[in-house]
Amino acid sequence: MSRRPQTELAVLGALSTGSMTGYEVRAAITEILGDFWHESFGQIYPALNALEQAGAIARSTPGRTSGSRFEITPAGTVLLRERLAEPHHATPPRNGLLLRLFFGTQLPPGRSRELLEAEIERAEVALARFAAIRADMDTEPPGAEHDYRALTLAYGEHHARAHLAWATEALRALPDRD
Q1: Is 3-85 a CATH 1.10.10.10 domain?
Q2: pLDDT band (50, 70, 90) for residue 3
Q3: What are the DSSP calls for 97-128, one per residue?
Q4: In whole angstroms, what is the distance from residue 60 CA to residue 49 CA?
Q5: What pLDDT, in 10s, does the model give residues 79-102?
Q6: Phi and psi at residue 173, in whole multiples of 5°?
Q7: Cα separations (Å) of 16 from 38, 41, 81, 159?
């Protein structure tokens, strides 16, 4: 699946929770999905226009795209469900840390260590954030929505623990020059 349908899927998913402006769609994606999904305004506004032209969303208040509120239509709900049911195609990751470490012999002495220490800190911050989210979720009533959110939270927790373990191990394995 190309980038545009993925962006449209994220936008439809956000709008399935209620009417929003383009700015609110981006904020919802960043706040709720930000640990595993990112969209820029440059991706969201063209997706809003394309989805509106396709009849998947409608403006609930007329005006410019940036000030309008959008809501998902019944056709948009059908499209959302169809796209969610499509096979997932993993995209190759782009990891700036690994790119730098791969060419680590070109880094100044000590820089690899600094990069790994920063990665350890990011993982620890993420784990603390996930613990707070889990504590909030534990106060919610059980149900299907809670269960699916818990699955994605567990992914984030596992991912952060794996990053923490890897970065700690990599820090110990650095050559003496670092």
Answers
A1: yes
A2: low
A3: HHHHHHTGGGSPTTHHHHHHHHHHHHHHHHHH
A4: 14
A5: 999 999 998 877 777 789 999 999
A6: -90, -5
A7: 18, 19, 11, 27
Q: How many CA atoms lie within 13 A of 168 on its CB side?
A: 9
- Digit-coded pLDDT (tens) for 40-90: 888 889 999 999 999 999 998 665 555 789 999 999 999 999 999 998 877
Mean pLDDT of the chain: 87
Give the rounded distance of the alpha carbon of 172 from its chain centre.
Answer: 30
pLDDT of residue 89: 78
Which amino acid is it at 76?
G
Q: Tell me if 48 sits within 8 A of 11, measured CB to CB.
A: yes
Count of residues in the chain: 178
User: Which amino acid makes up residue 39?
Assistant: E
Long-range contacts of 160-165 (CB under 8 A, 24+ apart): 160/123, 160/126, 160/127, 160/130, 161/123, 161/127, 163/119, 163/122, 163/123, 163/126, 164/120, 164/123, 164/124, 164/127
Give the pLDDT band of residue 177 (cuts 50, 70, 90).
low
For 19, what's the count of Cα atoms within 13 Å in the CB-facing half-sphere?
Answer: 10
Closest listed residue to residue 70, CA positions, set 55, 82, 83: 55
